[in-house]
Each structure stands twice: as structure tokens, then as C-alpha cells.
Amino acid sequence: MGDFQHIDGYVLTPQGFVRGRLSQSAGRITAISGEPVSEAQVRHDQPALPIVLPGFIDVHVHGGGGHDTMEGGEAAREISKLHVRHGTTSMLATTMTAPMDEIRSALAALGPVCRERDRQGARVLGVHLEGPYINPGKLGAQPDFAKPAAMQEVSELNALAPIKLITLAPELPGNLALITELRAAGYQVQIGHTLGTYEDGVAALAHGAQGFTHLFNAMTGLHHREPGMVGAALAHARYAEIIPDLLHVHPGAIRVALRAIPCMFCVTDSTAAAGQPDGDYKLGRHTVTKCMGGVRLPDGTLAGSTLTMDQALRNLVGLGLEIADASRRVSSNAAEYMGLSDRGQLTVGAWADLVVLDRELQLQRVLVEGEEIDLA
């Protein structure tokens, strides 16, 4: 649909909402002008001007539109097209635990997708390696191909496609030392699919891990005498993923995490079933079933979600968050976590990644690096 030059409305800047105009050139924001307004004015002013927020950032995406990341490059392009139509302007293609030859094949196909954006898709910034370096006793919906981690192996995979984020279980032999190595090499590391104790979590953070994979899910829970990995996150983490589909995590637990973890951010953990009717879909080597709003293995285990980031935003606002706070949880917090200084915020010089919504927070327009996406 081409490039835009100006958008008028309530523009959310890092300092708060401005009633005014955002301008861009060559995909970058060049100016934001207008007068500061309160969120109450945004919600109640007449006429109802559009709300302009930073584009959503999702660092945990397995699939969408009937396609699974493990299928490789063309599948990833279709996944990015599905999610961009729900406001995700940048994302990490997330792999599953699998035999190493399957992971290598997937990353070899993802490499070109990370280097060149489809003009009707989200920017695929790189890969989130969710396994195979996880605890085989806490697979969740991951196939049973967990294995010990090795720096050389990660380097070889990174040569195929840029790995930006790695989930691992810190309690496994050698993984604490490996966290330090991975961080020194520039990888972001988070804790997940773990049977680790509270003490294991604290040690992992001390060794350089920064976050937690889908908080509460596939990790040891909180008990007042055994705080577990959830306790380590709530007591010490600055960042953690959470899946706010209101199925993976009870709204009350989401509220607990919001109070405890300053920069908690949302992910979809979406599968091929996202944006599709009920039925059977692939999730790595698994066949999963979408029904009753969820995605499950045959034994009933939750297996990713059908969530999209626009619905995540609406769910957070429905829980009582202000729009500005909810926006941070679906955008700027993840950008900060991943070290993306030019995404996740509407400031001069940043990429013109943004979403335009109506008063009910329904998407009206999506722009990626200054290019408008066809939402039809």
C-alpha cells in the first residue's frame, strides 16, 4: 500500500501521549509534534482520533496461518504475514526441540528470511532457540529430544541464521558456565523448561541469564517453603515472558507477575493454528489440536497458543492496565530486553514501526519500517 509521510492522532511517545502528528521519511521517524494529553483524554476526547502505538514485538513465535517455523523459510514468511496483520512488526522465529539435523535444516531455511523482509510481513529479527538445551523432565509440549548444550554447536547454528535468544535449563550439568559464555558471545539467555530450584534460578541470573520463558509454564512453581523457579523470577527478575491468552496463566497470576517483575513483556507462543479454524496442526514433530480457544497435545497438555499480539494488548487493558502500560508490555519492554534501541518506541530516529487503533483497540493500520501493510 506504499509509504506514508504523516499520521495524525494520539501518538504514544516514551514521555506519554501527544495529540498531534508523527512524520517519517525512508522508514524512520523524523518528527513528532503536538500537545501532551492524559490517557483519560485519549479514552474520552471527541472526536475520537486514532491511537498510534509502537508496533508489537514478539520474541516467541512458533507459527501462524497454518505454518510452523520448523518447516523452514517459506513457512516463516507466511507466519510473518499472519502476525503482521495483527500488529506484530518484528519477531523472533522460534524453533522446537528436535533432532539436530532438523534444527539445522530449519535454521538454514530461516537465514534468508532474517536477512530480507517480505514487504507484507513482519521483520524477522532472528531466531529464538527454545531447546534442545532443556530439562527432559519438563518438556511441556516440546518433543523428547533434549540434549546437553555446547558452545560450538550454538556457533554452528548461528552461522546458518542469527540466533538472538536461547532458552535453557540452568540446573543441567555445564549450563551455568555456558550461560556466561553465551552472554559473552552476545546471545540473550533465558530460563525455561526447567526443574530447577529457586537457588538454581538465582545462580542462573548471577551467571548472566536475563529472563524467563513463558513465566509459570514449564517450570517449578511457587511454594512458600520451596519457592522454585517461579519464586526466583518473582523475587529477582527484571524481565520475563508471559502468555496473556488468559488460558496459560490465570489473570490473578498475571497480576502477581505485573507487580513483581518491572519489565515483564508479552509473547504469543503462537502455533500454526493461530488465525486458523479448529482442527489439527503441526508443532514441530507433534500434531496438535485447536479447539475451545486453545491448542493441546492428545493428552491435554497445552501446546502453544492461538494468541495474537493485538489480542494480548486488549487482554491486558481488560485486566485494568492503562493503554500506555499495556503498550510497553507488548513492545518497548521486549525491545529493551533484546537491546533494540530503534524499535519498540515512537521517537525521532527510530524505525517507523507502528500500529494505528480505534477507541476499542481494534487495528486500523500497521506500518513496518514506514511501509503500510495490507490488512485485507
From TrEMBL:
<feature type="binding site">
    <location>
        <begin position="302"/>
        <end position="304"/>
    </location>
    <ligand>
        <name>substrate</name>
    </ligand>
</feature>
<feature type="binding site">
    <location>
        <begin position="217"/>
        <end position="218"/>
    </location>
    <ligand>
        <name>substrate</name>
    </ligand>
</feature>
<dbReference type="InterPro" id="IPR003764">
    <property type="entry name" value="GlcNAc_6-P_deAcase"/>
</dbReference>
<keyword id="KW-0119">Carbohydrate metabolism</keyword>
<dbReference type="GO" id="GO:0046872">
    <property type="term" value="F:metal ion binding"/>
</dbReference>
<comment type="similarity">
    <text>Belongs to the metallo-dependent hydrolases superfamily. NagA family.</text>
</comment>
<dbReference type="InterPro" id="IPR032466">
    <property type="entry name" value="Metal_Hydrolase"/>
</dbReference>
<dbReference type="Pfam" id="PF01979">
    <property type="entry name" value="Amidohydro_1"/>
</dbReference>
<dbReference type="GO" id="GO:0006046">
    <property type="term" value="P:N-acetylglucosamine catabolic process"/>
</dbReference>
<feature type="binding site">
    <location>
        <position position="193"/>
    </location>
    <ligand>
        <name>Zn(2+)</name>
    </ligand>
</feature>
<keyword id="KW-0479">Metal-binding</keyword>
<feature type="binding site">
    <location>
        <position position="248"/>
    </location>
    <ligand>
        <name>substrate</name>
    </ligand>
</feature>
<feature type="active site" description="Proton donor/acceptor">
    <location>
        <position position="269"/>
    </location>
</feature>
<feature type="binding site">
    <location>
        <position position="225"/>
    </location>
    <ligand>
        <name>substrate</name>
    </ligand>
</feature>
<feature type="binding site">
    <location>
        <position position="214"/>
    </location>
    <ligand>
        <name>Zn(2+)</name>
    </ligand>
</feature>
<dbReference type="GO" id="GO:0008448">
    <property type="term" value="F:N-acetylglucosamine-6-phosphate deacetylase activity"/>
</dbReference>
<protein>
    <submittedName>
        <fullName>N-acetylglucosamine-6-phosphate deacetylase</fullName>
        <ecNumber>3.5.1.25</ecNumber>
    </submittedName>
</protein>
<feature type="binding site">
    <location>
        <position position="141"/>
    </location>
    <ligand>
        <name>substrate</name>
    </ligand>
</feature>
<keyword id="KW-0378">Hydrolase</keyword>
<feature type="domain" description="Amidohydrolase-related">
    <location>
        <begin position="51"/>
        <end position="370"/>
    </location>
</feature>
<feature type="binding site">
    <location>
        <position position="130"/>
    </location>
    <ligand>
        <name>Zn(2+)</name>
    </ligand>
</feature>
<dbReference type="InterPro" id="IPR011059">
    <property type="entry name" value="Metal-dep_hydrolase_composite"/>
</dbReference>
<dbReference type="InterPro" id="IPR006680">
    <property type="entry name" value="Amidohydro-rel"/>
</dbReference>
